[in-house]
């Protein structure tokens, strides 16, 4: 039989080409970008520009969501195969630039073979039809009392949607949620549309700044959305269980003042809006998802937490909007820059507003610091997370142990230079990623002298250096068992919550932040 239809002939030739390419390529394998702490996160060969996530929620948080993920990316090399980080969902279809593509799984990667190789330096669109499964206990979706929310840090975004799941590759997001009309759906960024379709409502949100996958947030539930203004007219949007809106108002109304305080420390708030997302879930942590920080309901409703303490937790997550969200870590070993700074401003706020001595807390941190380094590694060279427990990376050395580095730095270069450094850091690197080497270079420039030796000692050595300005401070030798239970802080309910704190100052948000 002779084929005379040109389109049919072209389709068959394309199919034959895919089969031939697949036959000559090696077996699919998971890839990574070489991060020592999460070696198979991220993928080489492309830079994601935008994500378009389309979730359909049927109203039962035990069932998978039908999802379509569209990724626009720029290739940085010729790609015969494209790896995406994705697991814990069923893939139904894949297209690359509108043409059907073959796909397979390898480890926690979705490995795509396009109909034809994608050349270097061109834009490509990848469309994946898949499910997004809220079952499981390793992060991603978390079930709340009335729906779902996301806890993607550190490596769990790819349990929700396919992508380049490493903070080194930030992108703009459009998030669309279809949910039963009785529920409220929210996501990062600004609401662009709300439309009825039968018994459902479709909610559309878009970020105005690039975002790391670990910081994505979607909440679906019986929620009230409360709006107010922050400094300079900044939109503040809080999302809380509808039944608790009055109970939570005394806490929520503090946010504009907290934003104003942070702006006086480091400069303008870096995003299009901000707010508090209160979830009816027991996570054991709070999480600085971009523009909409996640908090457990119990933090605000459980008796026994002092007011200053809850305020400090709120400021910790707020400070992350500058340190960790706007300026994101290039590698996970740069995490100390996120957590050390958030802990620093949490302490400063507690001291200024509640008389909680920063020096007392830092002296106690110094006493314990050698033990923390022995158990988890020095701040910028942490031990890898425990196998199967990625949030065990969020150890005490990342919180008070890293804030201790900043405390030493302020003594070393003086208050004026330190303040300039902080403001320059978020101004220069905002909306991007940065490394420990970048911080060292900028600090040296601001101080007018080479601080490499200072940072090497404080960030990479197993023993804590002498504290400038406090020659009498001593750090205890690590206990014999401190090197053994590296999984001591692996589970969320065992996560490090700051010195003597009952809940979560410096709590490992997202699965740690």
Helix content: 25-40%
Give me the secondary-structure category: alpha+beta
What strand order characterises the main sheet? Answer: 5-4-8-2-1-11-14-13
Mean pLDDT: 90
What is the molecular shape? globular
Instruction: Figure out the total of helices.
Output: 11
Classify the beta-strand content into a percent band: 15-25%
The main sheet comes to: 8 strands, mixed
DSSP E strands, number: 21
Poorly predicted spans: 7-22, 481-513
Task: Determine Rg (CA atoms, Å).
Answer: 24 Å
First CA to last CA: what distance? 64 Å
What can you tell me about this protein's structure?
29% of the residues lie in helices and 24% in strands. The chain is built from 11 helices and 21 strands. It has an 8-stranded mixed beta sheet with strand order 5-4-8-2-1-11-14-13, with no helix packed on it. A hairpin with a 2-residue loop joins strand 6 and strand 7. The longest helix has 20 residues. The protein is globular. The chain starts with 5 loop residues before the first helix and ends in a 53-residue tail after the last helix.
């Amino acid at each position: 039989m002779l084929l005379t239809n040109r389109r049919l002939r072209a389709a068959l030739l394309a199919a034959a080409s895919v089969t031939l390419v697949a036959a000559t390529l090696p077996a699919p394998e998971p890839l990574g970008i070489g991060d020592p702490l999460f070696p198979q996160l991220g993928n080489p060969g492309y830079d994601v520009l935008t994500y378009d996530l389309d979730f359909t929620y049927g109203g039962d948080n035990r069932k998978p969501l039908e999802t379509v993920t569209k990724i626009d990316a720029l290739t940085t090399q010729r790609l015969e195969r494209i790896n995406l980080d994705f697991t814990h969902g069923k893939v139904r279809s894949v297209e690359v630039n509108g043409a059907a593509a073959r796909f397979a799984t390898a480890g926690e990667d979705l490995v795509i073979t396009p109909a034809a190789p994608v050349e270097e330096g061109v834009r490509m669109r990848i469309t994946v039809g898949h499910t997004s499964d809220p079952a499981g206990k390793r992060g991603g979706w978390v079930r709340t009392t009335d729906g779902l929310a996301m806890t993607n840090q550190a490596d769990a975004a790819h349990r929700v949607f396919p992508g380049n799941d490493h903070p080194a590759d930030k992108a703009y997001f459009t998030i669309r949620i279809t949910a039963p009309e009785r529920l409220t759906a929210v996501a990062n960024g600004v609401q662009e549309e709300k439309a009825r379709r039968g018994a459902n409502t479709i909610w559309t949100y878009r970020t105005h700044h690039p975002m790391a996958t670990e910081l994505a947030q979607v909440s679906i539930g019986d929620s009230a959305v409360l709006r107010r203004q922050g400094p300079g007219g900044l939109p503040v949007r809080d999302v809380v269980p509808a039944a608790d809106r009055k109970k939570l108002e005394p806490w929520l109304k503090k946010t504009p003042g907290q934003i104003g305080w942070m702006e006086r420390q480091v400069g303008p708030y870096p995003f299009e809006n901000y707010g508090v997302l209160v979830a009816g879930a027991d996570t054991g942590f709070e999480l600085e998802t971009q523009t909409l920080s996640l908090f457990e309901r119990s933090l605000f409703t459980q008796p026994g937490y002092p007011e200053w303490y809850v305020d400090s937790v709120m400021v910790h997550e707020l400070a992350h909007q500058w340190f960790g969200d706007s300026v994101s870590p290039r590698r996970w070993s740069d995490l100390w820059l996120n957590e050390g700074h958030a802990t620093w401003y949490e302490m400063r706020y507690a001291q200024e507003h509640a008389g909680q001595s920063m020096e007392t807390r830092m002296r106690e941190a110094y006493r314990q610091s050698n033990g923390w380094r022995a158990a988890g590694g020095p701040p910028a060279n942490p031990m890898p997370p425990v196998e199967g427990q990625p949030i065990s990376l969020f150890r005490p050395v990342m919180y008070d142990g890293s804030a201790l580095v900043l405390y030493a730095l302020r003594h070393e270069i003086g208050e004026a230079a330190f303040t300039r450094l902080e403001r320059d850091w978020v101004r220069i690197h905002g909306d991007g990623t940065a490394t420990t080497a970048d911080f060292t270079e900028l600090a040296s420039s601001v101080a007018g002298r080479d601080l490499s030796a200072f940072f090497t000692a404080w960030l990479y050595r197993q023993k804590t250096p002498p504290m400038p300005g406090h020659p009498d401070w001593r750090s205890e030798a690590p206990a014999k068992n401190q090197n053994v239970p590296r999984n001591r802080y692996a589970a969320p309910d065992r996560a490090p919550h700051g010195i003597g704190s009952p809940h979560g100052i410096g709590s490992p948000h997202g699965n740690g932040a």
